[in-house]
Structure formats: C-alpha cells, structure tokens
Amino acid sequence: MPRKCGRPPKSAEPLDAQKKLIDTTVKLIKKYGADSITVRNVCEEAGLSIGTFYHHFQNKDDLLMHFVRETSFDRFVLETPLSDVPGRICELYMHLINRYMNLGEEFMKSFYTTGNKALSAYMGQEDGHYAEGTVMARCEKELDLAKQEGFLNADADSHLLSIDICTIVKGCVFEWALNDGKMDIQTSLHRILDAYLSAERIL
Questions:
Q1: Nearest to residue 161, comparing CAs of 119, 196, 126, 191?
Q2: What is the torsion angle, in degrees rounded to the nearest 10, for the CA atoms of residue 144, residue 149, residue 152 and residue 157?
Q3: Are residues 61 and 79 in the same domain?
Q4: What is the pLDDT of residues 182-191, one digit of tens each?
C-alpha cells in the first residue's frame, strides 16, 4: 500500500500520561511526604512536560485531590445492614482507608499531614455542608436513613455525628501510623464507633 504524501500527524500524547503523573506522585509522597509535592518535581520525575500536567490537573492540590475524590461514595453498595449503624459506617470509611493502605504504609503516613491542603479541603465543610460524593456526606445520609428507620434516636443530629465520626476516623488513621501499621484499624474503628454511637442507638 503506497504511503500518503504530506506531513505526518503529530504523535498523540501517551494515553498513560495521567497514570504516570499519579504513580510518580505516589512515589514522591512515599519518599518525601505530601508537603514536598510540586508541579515541577512531579513532571521532572515523570519525564513529562508541565503542559502535559496542566492538561490533566489544574494544580498541585487538584492532583492530590485525586486520591480522595477518585470515586463518589454515593455509588458504594454497603453490605452491612442498616440496623448495625457502627458496622455500616465502619464499612463505609474502610473503603477510603483501604484505598490508601493499598498504596502502602509510607504513603498513608506521608499523605495524612496537616500540610496536605487537598485532604483538608476534602474533609472540610462549605456553608455547613460536606461536598456531595464525599465519604462524610454519605456518612451523614446513612445516619439520616438510620434515624428514619428507627435505628437511631429521631432527635440525633446527623451532621454533628458525622463531624465527630470523621474526627474519630482521622484519629484511628493517625494512631495506625504511629504504630507503624501494626494496629488493626478496622477493629479499632468499629469498637470506637460502637461506643460513641451507643447513646444514640435504639436497638
């Protein structure tokens, strides 16, 4: 078959460019911590241009947000029955925790820092509400549903409970990191949630 005349088409950007940026970020976080991440050092380590970076992410915080917003928690199907409120909430949060743990202990330790503005933004509130699709927003919805079904006191403040539960989860993750990953985070989280929610549970 004869070759076509004219200028050859520009080579397309590699389909795995975004994955390479993400994988490189994981590598740098494990080695230097989330606070050290910059657009420039990610691009240099990945061997990609800054223009390629901005094709996939708005800025550094947008890149780091990938690790917490990759999946909407509205879509998760929970297997724990609604009647077991602590177990159901524990299962919900373990979806997020397991995602981090799969990236390795060093990633977990380095990602959960006070300097990680992306994580703070994700777990923060805007006008007294959690952003849709976040694990905290789903937690609040689960608590509302438990109230409607009579498994929590009708006058329980679902939003306040969700705030406290988020704090409990962060404490468990921090304790896990302090113990070099040797703590059974799921067992501890379930036990603490069970004790915390005992005053609000009907069954």
A1: 196
A2: 20
A3: no
A4: 889 999 999 9
Do 29 and 78 share a domain, yes or no?
A: no
One-letter amino acid identity for 53? F
Give the count of alpha carbons within 13 A of 40, CB side only: 1
> pLDDT tens digits for 131-178?
788 889 999 999 999 999 999 999 999 999 999 999 999 889 888 888
Domain housing 98: 71-197
Task: For residues 68 and 106, give the distance between their C-alpha atoms in angstroms, rounded to a whole number.
Answer: 17
Structure token pair of residue 149: 């079904």
**Helix crossing, 85-102 with 60-69: angle to 10°?**
130
Q: What's CA 153's distance to the chain center, in Å?
A: 29
CATH of the domain at 35: 1.10.10.60
d(CA 78, CA 200) in angstroms, rounded, equals: 21
